[in-house]
Records
---
Amino acid sequence: MTDYAQAMADCLGIEGALGAALVDQSSGMTLATGGDPPAVDLHVAAAGNSAVVQAKLRTMEALGLDDEIEDILITLGRQYHIIRPVSSREGQGLFLYLVLDRARANLALARFRLTKIEQDFRI
C-alpha cells in the first residue's frame, strides 16, 4: 500500500523521471507533486492534462466505447508525458502524471513501473 508521498518518490525513482504529480481529473488540482522538470510547471500541466483526460472520456462515450483509459502518452521532442488514471475504487477520479527525459528514459519500463505504482496506490 502506497501513500501520496511514497507514490511521488516511487515515480521519481523511474529512470529519466523529471517530475510527477497526483491530480484530481475533474478539477485539475494537484494533490501531490515531486521533482522539478525544466520548463514544466506541474500545477499548470496538471490542469491542462485533466482537460485531456476529460476530452478522451467524452470521446469514448460519444463513440460508445465500453472501455477504460489505461494510460495516455504524449511524446514531445525531449520529453515523454504519461497520464495514468488510478484504477482503485478509492482513487477513482485521480491520475498520476509523469514527465520523463526522453534521452534517459526507457518508455516501456517507465510504463510498467508506473502501472505498478498506480496499482499499489491507496488513499
---
Amino acid sequence: MTGAAFDEVIHAPNRLQICSMLAAVDAMEFSVVREALDVSDSVLSKHVKVLQAAQYASITKVRRRTWLALTPEGRRALAGHVAELRRIVERAEVGS
C-alpha cells in the first residue's frame, strides 16, 4: 500500500491503538498491550487475529510470553491510514 488510504482493518478504535503502540517498538508483550487498552485477553486476541489475518501483525511466543509486532506491511498500512486521517482532518479545518 502506498500513500494515503483509509484502512477499514486498522480503523477500529482498539486496532488503531494496537497498531499505534506497536509502531513505536520492535515488539510488545501481549499483557502490556492488554493493560494499556484495558481490555480482556479475549478482546485483544480477537483484534490481533484480525490484524494477523490482514498480515499487519505477527505473534511470537517465547516461553510463557506472547509478543506482538507490526509487520512491514502493517507499518505501511498504518502510515497510509494516518496520512488519510490527516487529510480528512485538514479538509475539516479548512471548512471551519
---
Amino acid sequence: MKQHFLKALPAALVMALSATAAQAALPIDFGGYLRSGFGTSGEGGKESCFGLAGASSKYRLGNECETYAELKFGGEAFKAANGTTFRINTLVAFSVNQNQDWEQSDPSWREINVVADKIGTGILADARAWVGKRYYDRQDVHITDYYFWNNSGPGAGLENIDLGPAKLAYAIIRTADEKDSKRMALSHDFRFSGIKVNPDGELTVGLQYNQKRNAAGADPIASGHLLTFMHTQGNLLGGYNKVALQFGKGSAANTGGATLGATSNDKVTRLTEQLMIQPKGAWSGMATLVYEDRQTAGASSKWTSLGARPVYNFTDNYSLAVELGHDRVKPEDGETRQLTKLTIAPQLAAGPSFWSRPVLRAFYTYAKWNKAAQAAAAADTALSSTGVFGGKTNGSSMGFQVESWW
C-alpha cells in the first residue's frame, strides 16, 4: 500500500520526504555549559556580587549571582561525494538571578547557523563558509569571563582559507538598533591566523572596519575600525600564554561589533594578557592583566585589572582554589575607584586538570573597596551605600556553586 501511495505523489515530493527521513536519522550532537548555586551575604539576606563601575569584567570565583546555561544542539545535515559537508549548529541560552526561587526567563538564540566545510580546491580545500547567527571566534579570559575580542551576531563568512604562512578568515556581521529599524552597521572582519613567529608561538592579526548603513532620516552612526594583534605561546608549563594588543576608533572602540551610539572621536587602546599553567604536580592556575585607556563621548578613563586563580589538588578529585583580583578605574575627572576581591573555594571536580568539569564548590568571598567606588556604584548593588552592606566599604558572601561544560 505504501508503494501505491508513493506512486501517486509528485516525484519532487517523494524526494523531499525521502530526504527528510534520511536527515531525521542523523545523529544529533548535544553540548553546553551551565553554572548555578546559591549564597548569602555576610550581613544576611541575599547573595551580593562585587564588581567595579567602569571595569568591563569582574573576578568570577565565588562572585556570580545568576543561574546561566547554554544548550547546544547540532549535527551533520549532508555530506557530498566530494567531501563537502553541511552542518547545522544551534545554541540557546538563558540567565536568571539566583535570588529568584521561581524562574521565569525568556531564552535567547545565541547561535543558529549552517556551516559548509571543505568547499573547494586549492586554497579553499579546507575552507568553510557559514551563514546565520554565531559566536564568532571569541577570545576571552576565563577567570574573569572577559571577552576582549568578540564580534558576534548575525552574519556570513569564509574561514580557514590557506594562504601558506597564514589562514585567512573574513566575516561580515550586522549590528542593528533594536528601537530604530533605520539604523544599522556592518562590521567587516578580516583575520590572519596561524602565523608562526617563534617555536610554539603563533600570531593572529585582525582588522575590523565598521560600515554605517543608515536609512534616510535616521540618527547618524559613526564608522570605525579595530586593529588587533594577538600572540599565543603554547607548550608553556603545561599551558599557554596569550597576549593581545588592540586599537579601536569610532563605533569599533570596543571589543568587537559596532557601538551605534559612539562618536567618531571615541577610541580605545587595550592590552590583555593571560597565563594558564599546569606543570607536573598538584598545582595549576591562571593569571591575567588588563590595561585599557578609553575615551567615550569626550570623557576618558583608564582601567587596570590584575588577578590570579591558583588551584592545588590534594587528590584527583579534591582541590582548593584561591582567587585574588584587583580592579582600578581612574576617570578623567574624578577619584580613582578600587576594588579587591579574595575567594577561597574547596572543590570536588571530575579530575585534576584546571579545566576539569563538572566541579562542585563551596566558597567564601571577601571584598574591599574605597569611597570613590562606592559613590560610582549603581543603586542597591553590593558596593553602593544603598546596598546590603550600607555605608561599609567591605563585605563578604558565602555559598555553593556548580559549574560544568560538556
